[in-house]
Design a protein that fits this description.
The chain is an alpha+beta fold. It contains 8 helices and 5 strands; from the N terminus they run ααααββαβαβαβα. Strands 1-2-5-3-4 form a 5-stranded mixed β-sheet, with helices on both faces. Strand 3, helix 6 and strand 4 form a beta-alpha-beta unit.
Length: 224
Amino acid sequence: MSHKLVLAMVLVMLGGCAHSGAAPDKSATAKRWWPFDNASASKIAANPTLAAPKYNQKWLDDYEPRLREALQGSGFDLERREDVLLVTMPVEGSFNPDRPQLLLPAKLGPLTRMAKLAEQDPQGAAVLILGHADSSGKLELNRRISEQRAQAVGGIFRLSGFERDRMRLKGVGSDMPRAANDSPEGRALNRRVEILLAPKANLVALLQQYLRPPIPAKLASSKP
């Protein structure tokens, strides 16, 4: 195992220990997970054209096959959308079931390869990392765990030399489900980390699209 992977494991484990003790300072958590000042938010709201996505099919055509190669055998899903590449990382098999914010060693390799690919992108790839949870349990606990998972994945990007101004992270709890939460299968789909990659020029558009206040999802029940 390489020195960087060992270092990543140590730091992720330390991060897990830090969250297992006293209750977190809510004000500090808010500052960490919403790194955009009010002035910037107001500027975007007042002028939506600032956040108009710049579709770059050439970038997607070039980046997608390299990303697929980096993620081979990882168990992650890669989806190409109109303006982004979306990597979905299921919680099961990726995080320690006894310490839900701790990445398993087997996932450090594919995450590091993805981070290195993004860090070396000549156009300056931007990354938005969203942690998700299912709706079982207390709302605030789910949100905090989803934040910790996003932070763990973001930590691998930072260790790989990824610039802070090209990455944003947020835990959204159970606000953005993929499936109904009334079955074990649906809840497993909802427990995930999503990693969205796009050219840096699209970062503001990504923030506006994916971090706006969620609209409650109407999902079909899995029960007859």
